[in-house]
Write a structure and sequence with these properties.
Layout lengths: L1 H21 L3 H13 L3 H25 L5 H21 L5 H21 L1
Helix pairs in contact: 1-2, 2-3
């Protein structure tokens, strides 16, 4: 039990640090870590990561706001599409097998990595 708690704490710590630095971590760190180290099913890992992102985002946003780093006009515009997309994604999540979901996630991570390196 203590070993699992330590894993969970370390996964959370690394996720929080990545979220604070990169604005990312919920999906990129949490999902693979929960699947590989905690034996959580893929779709449950995705759903859990989304739930963890809220408190992470609140804490990180507090610091970004206090340093005046947020473009509020952009936030308002992107939020509308994000809310609609989040609703649609959560409705279709369980329609994918773990294998398919893992492939979609992996491909999206590869595309993001290539874009970050070359653009």
């Amino acid at each position: 039990m203590k070993k699992n708690l330590l894993k969970i704490f370390l996964i959370g710590l690394i996720t929080g640090i990545c979220n604070g630095i990169f604005g990312s971590g919920g999906g990129t760190i949490l999902v693979p870590a929960m699947v590989m180290f905690l034996d959580i099913k893929e779709n449950k890992a995705h759903a859990t990561a989304i739930s963890v992102i809220l408190p992470l985002s609140v804490i990180s946003s507090y610091f970004y706001i206090s340093h005046q780093l947020i473009d509020w006009n952009l936030v308002l515009k992107v939020t509308l599409g994000s809310v609609i997309g989040g609703y649609a994604g959560s409705r279709i999540l369980n329609r994918f097998s773990d294998h398919t979901l893992r492939r979609i996630f992996g491909i999206s991570m590869l595309i993001a990595a290539v874009r970050m390196v070359f653009w």
